[in-house]
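MODEL INPUT / OUTPUT PAIR
PAIR INDEX: 1
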Amino acid sequence: MNQELRRKLKRITDILWAGGVTNPVTYIEQISYLIYLKLLDEEESNRELRVRLLGDKAGGNGELLFPKEAERYRWSKWRFKSGPELRDFVRDHVFPYMASLVKEEPQIAEYFRDAVLEITDPNVLKQVVDEIDGIDFGKLGTDVKGDIFEYLLTHLGQSALNGQFLTPRQIRTMMVEMVDPDLGDTIYDPACGTGGFLIDAVGNILAKYSTEPQEVPIYGIEWLEQKARQMGLLEKEEDIDKTPPQRRREIIQAVKETLPGQTGVSTLQTYRKGAGEKIPDWELLERSIYGIDVSRQMMRIAMMNLVLHGIRKANVKRANTLSEMGGLTEDDLNRRYKVILSNPPFAGVLPKESIRKDLPTNSKKSELLFLGVMMEALAPGGRCAVVVPEGLLFGSTKAHRELRRKLVEDYDLLAVVSLPAGVFKPYAGVKTGVLVFRRPSATIEMDKRAKDEEKVWFYKVRADGFDPDKIQGGGRPETPERNDIPDLLAKWSEYKASGYKNPPGVEAGTMLEPGSEEPRSWWTAIKNIVENNYNLAAGRYKPQIVEKAPDEDPTELIRETLAIEREIAEGLEKLLKEIEA
């Protein structure tokens, strides 16, 4: 995203802030409405062109969004209005029209259902409309359009109230790589928030189906460009986005080599981006994306996030995933997914009578209910990565133990990743972990003895690439020299290559030699977890380092101890005589 586009977006957010729209969720939602209307106008122009060129052969792609009298609701027809006329027309006519397209364009209608224009100052609205009108989205690549929304979402991080909606990129990237979604997989997040996991899953697929995927640090292209200039790899006027792919790879590799890591794996965490030009069926990709959120604002933001990343027809809806009366259809309840990725809300408690009856837990706690939802929704052979509070891993209530028992005995629990306490700072200091598991194929018969010998891998992430203690500018400062996640992913690749039979690291209960490096990963057999009351806390099974025996002669230590004891006894006897006298 170039600097001019970045400045334009900053002007838009500044205009809204000065105009009284100060809640980040609200002004991102309001910007989303207007961007969507501009995108639909551009799409309408494309449809008109197809009709002119192809006539009757245009088929369904030639159906207009704004036929005949409805053309007045197009962005290009009302953008010149100003004052109260502009505000009233958008609020009272454009929004209701878009919400009325239930049969023609159900996703658009759902997006605008109950939509409210909260930019009440006509002058502010006019300024924002003019700024957005200056962006030709049709000429922007999907990457750039996606970057627009990623930039807007950074504003959510400035409000502690809204921090719950964002999962840090380094954690999302890690989880997506571990479950490795592919084209044809149905992908689901039952608490999708802004759609971050869905976007990253799509990005993973696009990179797979790209001729020349681009490697990007988790800190972004601009960070890489600045780092490359500091190292003398780029001239001051050079733009890294315009460098040839091979040159960009060389720069990334050179930066990685400055951050070697203790295990020989660079601590610079990266992910891959690509255009996905080799995807044979784009509609198949769009139809495979599913997300649900209880907040209509979040649902809209997630939808716009996906639209700007090229996914126009994702199945994102507003509903309460946990509730019997939450708005889920029979199809929603019966659908099974190949990939589930989520960071659901913790610490909520639902009324017993409103909780879905089909979940594998009787608990009222939201973290157990969400895990139950994902276990139930996973298709045979499907895989799931979910963030959970650490208390879920060792909680002693009957509901905690029973859900863990079902997870361990009826599913393939592949990994438990312990995350640092500071991952979600400054919004929450709760200690969390990530569970990665699969649902066995329906055709496989469970053998109790074989199941007992299966292994679970534990990895303790001590650092995630950001300072765990400092907060600057609403977030944690970057520490690229301290990040265990690249090492975790390298070891995960080994584990996966073995068919999840040979987890890296040492076995639980192993006593390591004095002076050994503290282990990051270890494993244990299922039977050991069963014996420990299904406790999944990583520390429970961590191998111990034997303390080095003292160099001193033990007989000499005993003599010194006896001498000290005699001095104490003599002192006490002397004190006793003085008291008696």
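PAIR INDEX: 2
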Amino acid sequence: MQRLSWHLAVIGMMVAGNGIGEAAAKKTGVAPTAASVAESVDRLIRSEIDASKIDIAPRCADEDFLRRVSFDIAGRPPLPQQVTLFGLNPDSQKRAAVIDQLLASPDFGRNWGGYYRDVIFMNATNQQLRGGQSVFEEWIAEQLNTNKPWDEIVTALLTATGDIREHGETALFLAHQSQPAEVAAESCRIFLGIQIQCANCHDHPSDVWKRQQFHELAAYFPRTALRPVTENGMQRSFEVVSVNMDNRRGGGGGPEQIRENPERVMAMMDRNRDEKLSKVEAENGPGGQFARIFERLLEVGDSNKDGMLSVEEMKKLPDPQMQRRGSSEYFMPDLKDPSSRGTQINPKFFVDQTTPATELPDMERRTAAAKAFTNPENPWFARAIINRLWHEMLGEGFYMPVDDLGPTRTARFPEVLDELASGFIANKYDVKWLVKTIALTDTYQRAVRSKSASAPELPFASQTPTHLRADQLFNALVTVLGVDDRAPGMGPGMMAGPFAAARSPRNQFHTIFSHDPSTPQEDILGNVQQALFMMNTPQFRGAVSATGNNRLGQIVRKYNDDQDAIAEVYLLALSREPSDQEIKVCQTYLKDTGNRTEAYEDILWSLLNSSEFLAKR
């Protein structure tokens, strides 16, 4: 009763009096604009910061804004000429205009598709299954670029089926091998920002969630399986399938159906009437389902190791170990007796306590889960993605860690989060609207300022430098150096399709430099492997040359005046002009080195390895 009262209170808070944006929408019947909500957000943040007597950082310079927003929306830095033209543009609305231009670029979907690729696959149950992530990237990039609503995207991810080479929306089930508990835990963490997996083996140690609630969530997902796809006798892929095994349909079924009625299974398949089932009899059985799991059944049930199953052996088949392979019901393991089948659990959504019908087939059961997740009255669904995007764009979230929301947590600036949530819902979960709203705020456009560790201030008084994700950093290197992003050509016998992308320079770079975007900024650190990769990879080291026809070589040949050349190198690498002190240092180095070509190569190399290049400022 206490949890239900709390949930009703949160929902009531969200629906009633959520700020100017929603009030305007109710009066006019039109969803609030990004600009109006951005203005409300700034007013709320400024009011609280001013009350704390903390100085707010000024607006950042145009060149800093352009670099920042280009990375945040499109995942790439601006070109030098774009920085120059943007700075010369006198239009007071030029920042809003460039936000719209970047949102209309196909790079928008690619950038945020890469973000959610890392969110899903960095925590994959089996890292060897990450080969299908390129198909997911293509799929979600298309969804985002065509502005598919966030609730529809999440619904597609939770209800996906099909070959992973053709259906990128199968990513969540691929990454976690269709294991119900893993899919439930990651769905909840990613789409609701709630770490309910901590209640897997016991009631949550620091939150209100109970062990029963975790397994009731997992009970939405047992009727799926990840199966190999074979072509010409060789495994080529995997597919996510629904497994709606039912005693009334015959044909064997899952371990629990086999154990409950082994006599019926024996009568249907025991062709030679020796009261034992062989592999050949399993393969010739109706439906083919029994044949697909027969080898595994032998592993766990063939007690006398004769390569066959008797009625008595089928009665003793353990269920929990087989559950991940697509049993039709979900069983909460008995911690005191792990070998038992445990307690059968029916699905129930822990937020609003809704329960679907118990006899629903897989797709209808997962559709019920998707509806519960994306319900506008679910206080966590909108807030989870808002918290993620705000954290990625400003370096700090309303909740930290970014994927640990919940009733016992306290949001920073809760009224701001409510204002964004009401506007996002009123705009029908429009992700482009949300990104635009954040980018339009003065809060986002503030300058970077060093923060005192001894006297921490309120968040959002200044911009927090954030590490570039691996794909953004690679895009920056491509822009500066012109590194080839294409995968090597296919040779005889080499695997084509989505797995070929794993051999591309981008993927190799991503493997070494990637991090989970859910990680707090202070926990993201460089390492020796990354430094060695940059120093020893001919592709990068060779591109830092002032003698070829690359960008650095063109600059060195074009500008005889070193001050102009230094300015162009800084503009290329850091999207800004150098300070007077930086020009002086570079000129001194040029003089001391005595070799102009080598000196410029060293200058560019030092900029590429600087903390400023590796971060958004």
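PAIR 2 NOTE: The chain has 29 helices and seven strands.
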